[in-house]
């Protein structure tokens, strides 16, 4: 059955590791597949909806979803996708999607930890780079070392 968990940077990777451990211990008898909506904060450039009126005018800059897809690939995601449209019309947005599988192995634990840290970190990076104080505070609180943040 599908479930929704709204967790962010600093929480996602811990939850994924807990799922992987539940599979490893036999508490769960099948792998757990973790995906996320294609509208996550670092995985979308949609100037008419999700990224409309960004503080730094980066509304349509699709470097962020491309970076997100590449980072998730390098981190070991099971499946990474790039697509456009996202409910606003073909060609009017760019999105990245991802899935990572918790199969109870040590290899999966390493992939889950990397993917589920780096994926939400991309959103924090993007919004910190654009000047959003909430993202800058989150980066500092979570120990995300970003060159655009002093201290």
Q: Can you describe this structure in just a few lines?
A:
With 151 residues, the chain is α+β, with helices and mostly antiparallel strands.
Keywords:
151 residues, 4-stranded antiparallel β-sheet, alpha+beta, single chain, 4 helices
Kindly describe this structure.
The structure is a single chain. This protein is α+β, with helices and mostly antiparallel strands and 151 residues long. It has one domain (12-133). The protein is built from four helices and four strands. The chain has helices at 12-25, 63-75, 106-129, 133-142, and strands at 32-35, 44-45, 79-84, 94-102. Strands 1, 2, 3 and 4 form a four-stranded antiparallel β-sheet that branches. 39% of the residues are buried. The model has no long low-confidence stretch (mean pLDDT 92).
């Amino acid at each position: 059955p599908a479930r929704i968990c709204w967790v962010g940077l600093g929480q996602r990777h811990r939850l994924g590791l807990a799922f992987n451990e539940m599979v490893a211990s036999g508490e769960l008898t099948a792998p757990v597949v973790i995906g996320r909506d294609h509208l996550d904060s670092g995985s979308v450039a949609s100037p008419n909806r999700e990224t409309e009126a960004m503080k730094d005018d980066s509304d349509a800059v699709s470097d962020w979803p491309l970076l997100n897809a590449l980072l998730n690939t390098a981190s070991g995601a099971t499946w990474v996708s790039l697509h456009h449209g996202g409910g606003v019309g073909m060609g009017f947005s760019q999105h990245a999607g991802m899935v990572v599988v918790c199969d109870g192995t040590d290899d999966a634990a390493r992939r889950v930890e990397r993917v589920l840290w780096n994926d939400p970190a991309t959103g924090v990076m993007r919004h910190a780079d654009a000047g959003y104080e909430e993202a800058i505070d989150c980066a500092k609180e979570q120990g995300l070392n970003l060159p655009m943040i002093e201290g």
